[in-house]
Amino acid sequence: MRLRLSDFDAVTFDVYGTLIDWEPSIIAFLGAWAGRHGVSAPGKDLLMAFDRARADIQKERPAHLYPDILRRCFERVSREFSIAIDVEERERFAATPHAWPAYADSQVGLKALQAKAKVGALSNIDNASLASSCIKLGFSFDVVVTAERVGAYKPDWPHFHTGIADFAALGIPRQRILHIGQSLRADVTPANRLGLPCAWINRPGRLLGLSGEGAAEAKPDLTVSSLVELVAALTGAPADIT
Questions:
Q1: Looking at the annotation, which residues are catalytic?
Q2: For the chain, percent helix, then strand, then coil, each to nearest 5?
Q3: For an engineered disulfide with 224, which of 16, 192, 196, 229 has Cβ 3.0 to 4.6 Å away?
Q4: pTM of the prediction?
């Protein structure tokens, strides 16, 4: 199946990991925190401990707002590495989404796509954190679906159902929507199960969302390593980030 942007009227994006480069910031925070407590652990081990905790906690209902997800993750990682829970550091970790940077290609890629289609965000985040990220992206989405809005987290389906309904209200049917994400677990697999065409941005060196429940089943219709590559594949004209 060759994906062409002309076959779609809307594209929906996962945000964190796909457009916002959060992993280095998470590793740096947890690495510095562990070091202050005399724990020497590889960054990958800290990141995967966070990912396991995040996947479990996001299944809890009623759903927690994302800052509270981060607090609970911090507490679990603290226990896993036998570090006493430091409330001040836990609160600093809960606020880190406001500082996570955008990938260098995100803004130009999003604007290139928005010139030809509506662009939506389906994000496992709270509204305030996403607002900060949109400032870093320098971009306004046409449709925004957050975990705070739907009271659930992907790979559960409320994000997708709500996004489909929002675009239907704009006259765009579900078969004209393309979903794009970095997470196999939270984006590609549920899109597969819902029958939505999807593209996987497999960012080099990034790990979150590539393992865990359902990840091995993921079958993207297109795999690229950057948003610039995605735009080129969909339109035949690469987005220039220089």
A1: 14
A2: 50, 10, 40
A3: 229
A4: 0.96
